[in-house]
Amino acid sequence: MGASSSKPIKTAANAAARRQYPKSPSSSTTGPSGNPPADRAGRAAARQEQPGPVFHSKQNPSAIKSEENKTAIDLDARDPHFAASLRSIGPVTPNPFNQQQPQRNHQKSLSTVFPPSTTSPKSRNPSLLVFSSRAELEKLAAREFESIGRQSHTGREFLDVVSIRHILAMRDKQGMSEEIIEKKLRLKKGAVALLGRKGVVGLVR
Prior knowledge:
By secondary structure, the chain is an all-alpha fold. Among the domains are: 121-153; 155-205, no CATH class. The mean pLDDT is 71. It has helices at residues 2-18, 27-30, 37-49, 61-78, 80-89, 103-113, 126-146, 161-172, 178-184, 191-194. It is built from ten helices and no strands. It is elongated. Pfam families: HTH_68. Residues 1-126 are annotated as: Disordered. This is Helix-turn-helix domain-containing protein. Residues 158-202 form the Helix-turn-helix domain.
């Protein structure tokens, strides 16, 4: 019992005797608790690379651009090859069709090509034109009907279907002349001729 219990004590004593401890303290334990030297060098480099204060120019960007354009033009003017090519081209004649003419001349040319219409906007519509013409003819027919029997009446010009059939029968079947038909029916001179010549307009059998 006593021998078996003393074996672990001897083993622990032998392990402690074999353990080696450092004879001098290391630099990592004796140094300050700050950052390592590598971090210090990186911070120093970052301070050197950090840009200083930026001073903005009070000059207008457009003025700077114009100065750059002038510089480019001066460089082109000093180029002998560019100057020689310009001399070889010679003076350029402008395109007469691409010139910007004044607005007044442009409107004048358009008015000569496309003259302004004398008709009203209503007359451009065919339906409105038909209605307006029909209304005008109705007024003329009513005025002619009111003047029948007066001395100023020169004869009828507006005819109904019955009168037209009667005129065509007198002309085609009876062979009467236009003057006789107009006198008999008290028609206006030239009213029979407006119906159309014989062979074009006639009675339907």
